[in-house]
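hey m, so remember when u said the tokens were messed up on ur end? i reran from scratch. heres the input so u can diff it against urs
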Amino acid sequence: MIVQTANFGDIEVDENNLYLFEGGLPGFEESQRFILVNVEGNPSFNYLQSADQPDLVFVLADPFAFFSDYEFDLSDAMMRELALDGQNDVSVRVILNARQGLREATANLTAPLVFNTKKQLGKQIILGQSSYSTRHRLFPAAAGAAKGE
């Protein structure tokens, strides 16, 4: 199938590589089918492109590549909802706000995206009672450098 995108042009995608986000993402419920577009040469980043809306795309990062102490538990209900059998089929990404450029990018650690890579399912989960921020700096050293510290 061909997925039309505003940023990448037309992308040919095997329908088996579409991720289903049942109910969409919060605020974007009308889009339920997405593809992961790799960033060439940097496996820590991806784009999450809607297959339903050409102009809907999110910049994603592997949170474990940037935040070594990042962790959370998936509830049994969430494991069932994503049809997860174990950890081998799980991939986690977080949405970045990179409007000011990658050096100033922030990551939403309170609402990670969890993917079942075997069954092509995805869901954004909201971590309750979390000490994480919705705007956690991806590159903390850039904050001090920008202020001349």
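this time it looks ok to me. Residues 2-146 form a domain with the BH3618-like fold (CATH 2.30.290.10). if urs says something different then somethings off w ur setup not the seq
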